[in-house]
């Protein structure tokens, strides 16, 4: 056992080790009780490999860090999966859940009107909300080109008529770059 | 603890030996790891593009005679087959039938149309107009679908249309992108 005191700790903390029977003035007893001939009680923590390991974790997490945060997915929406996909971007999110249409979680009309009419038509409430969003963006970013991206979060069972109506409404409201939110199929993507 | 020993420090000069405070450094790293783990996004969500192609306001300098390009119309109205129609304006150039054979993928009820993807790839290789990496325009595909078709099937077809890839250079970097842009037919 090493008798060298630890740099960092002086009093009252002492070097760890056996304490009992040290007062007995027999050398072989002292050697025996202090662990002589056996494995040392002190153990060095390998700090440098530990720091290397931590640095690797930090670098990996920084590389995969996403500043956009978690995407809000309605629990009632079961999204389809696709293989040839691109990464998500920050844009207004239009969700179609059952008969309800939501823009960033705010109700923006119903699909019932479209389904009852059984023809492609504009969803007025959705149109107004998206148009207001577009105008607000233009006021906040004067002189910049409006990206016109909107992401549709559509349940896999929703009929194409509703999807096309919402798609067309978004386009009329000034969001021609429509994306559909999907899951990654088989780890594909670009 | 870890230190840097460069000797010196005698004769009243400032000591050149320094102790690197490893324990606070490890604490800092652990805090950083904890923060990054808490804020990490493990989402597997992605998006698939569609282009609405809404005409903008008329421009005075716009030429009157715009060259009509070939477009691939994908008809998914039939129960048994897809129809791929190459059109130039209203003129039909070629029509190809593809069997509508859906292939289930995984346990989540997902489907794909590999035959359609393969045929669209062949068609683009034979008739695609925008192939050069420096070409910023893309071939256009128009999807015709029944009103009652479930969204899942629509996505499976769009996924098939996006399967042929081409090179695209932007800012000195070349990447593989889908050869087609997809939009919906309004009728």
Search tags:
heterodimer, A: 190 residues, alpha/beta, Nucleotidyltransferase, domain 5, 2 domains, 6 strands, B: 187 residues, alpha+beta, five-stranded mixed sheet, two-stranded antiparallel sheet, 3 helices, elongated
Per CATH, the architecture of the largest domain in chain B is 2-Layer Sandwich
Q: Distance between termini of chain A?
A: 58 Å
Described by strand count, sense and barrel closure, the largest sheet of chain B is: 5 strands, mixed
Mean pLDDT of chain B: 81
The overall strand count of chain B is: 12
> Helix count of chain A?
5
CATH topology of the largest domain in chain B: Nucleotidyltransferase, domain 5
- Highest-level CATH class of the largest domain in chain A: Alpha Beta
The mean pLDDT of chain A is 80
Number of strands of chain A: 6
Q: Name the poorly predicted regions of chain A.
A: none
Category from helices, strands and their pairing of chain A: alpha/beta
Distance between the termini of chain B: 75 Å
Largest sheet of chain A: 6 strands, mixed
Shape of chain B: elongated
How is this structure best described in words?
The complex is a heterodimer of chains A (190) and B (187). Chain A has 190 residues and is of the alpha/beta class. Chain A has helices spanning 27-33, 47-63, 112-117, 124-140, 160-172; strands at residues 81-82, 93-97, 100-103, 106-110, 149-154, 177-184. Chain A has 5 helices and 6 strands, in the order ααββββααβαβ. A 6-stranded mixed sheet of chain A has the order 1-6-5-2-3-4. In chain A, helix 4 (124-140) packs parallel to helix 5. In chain B, 23% of the residues lie in helices and 35% in strands. In chain B, helix 2 packs parallel to helix 3 (151-161). The longest helix of chain B is centred in the N-terminal third of the chain and has 18 residues, at 22-39. Chain B has 187 residues and is α+β, with helices and mostly antiparallel strands. Chain B is elongated. The termini of chain B are far apart. The chains are: A alpha/beta (190), B alpha+beta (187). Strand 6 (177-184) of chain A pairs antiparallel with strand 3 of chain B.
């Amino acid at each position: 056992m090493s008798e060298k005191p630890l740099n960092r700790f002086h009093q009252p903390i002492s070097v760890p080790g056996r304490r009992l029977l040290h007062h007995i003035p027999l050398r072989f007893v002292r050697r025996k009780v202090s662990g002589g001939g056996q494995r040392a009680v002190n153990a060095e923590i390998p700090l440098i490999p530990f720091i290397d390991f931590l640095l690797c974790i930090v670098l990996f997490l920084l590389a995969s860090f996403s500043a956009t945060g978690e995407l809000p997915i309605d629990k009632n929406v079961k999204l389809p999966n696709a293989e040839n996909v691109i990464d998500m971007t920050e844009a207004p999110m239009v969700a179609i859940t059952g008969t309800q249409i939501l823009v960033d979680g705010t109700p923006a009309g119903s699909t019932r009107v479209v389904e009852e009419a059984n023809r492609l038509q504009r969803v007025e409430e959705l149109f107004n909300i998206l148009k207001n969003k577009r105008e607000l963006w233009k006021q906040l970013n004067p002189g910049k080109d409006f990206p016109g991206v909107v992401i549709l979060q559509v349940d896999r069972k929703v009929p194409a008529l509703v999807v096309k109506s919402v798609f067309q409404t978004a386009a009329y409201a000034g969001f021609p770059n429509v994306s559909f939110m999907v899951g990654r199929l088989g780890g594909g993507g670009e | 603890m870890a230190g840097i020993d460069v000797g010196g420090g005698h004769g009243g000069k400032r000591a050149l030996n320094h102790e690197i405070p490893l324990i606070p450094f490890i604490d800092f790293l652990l805090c950083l790891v904890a923060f990054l783990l808490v804020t990490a996004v493990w989402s597997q969500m992605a998006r698939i593009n569609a282009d609405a192609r809404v005409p903008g306001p008329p421009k005075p300098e716009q030429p009157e005679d715009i060259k009509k390009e070939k477009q691939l119309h994908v008809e998914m109205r039939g129960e048994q087959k897809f129809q791929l129609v190459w059109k130039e304006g209203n003129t039909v150039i070629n029509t190809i039938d593809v069997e509508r054979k859906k292939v289930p993928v995984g346990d989540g009820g997902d489907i794909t149309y590999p035959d359609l993807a393969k045929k669209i790839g062949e068609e683009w290789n034979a008739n695609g107009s925008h192939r050069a990496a420096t070409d910023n325009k893309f071939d256009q595909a128009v999807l015709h679908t029944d009103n009652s078709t479930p969204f899942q099937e629509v996505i499976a077809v769009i996924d098939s249309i996006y399967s042929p890839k081409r090179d695209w250079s932007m800012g000195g970097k070349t990447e593989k992108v889908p050869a087609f842009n997809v939009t919906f037919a309004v009728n």
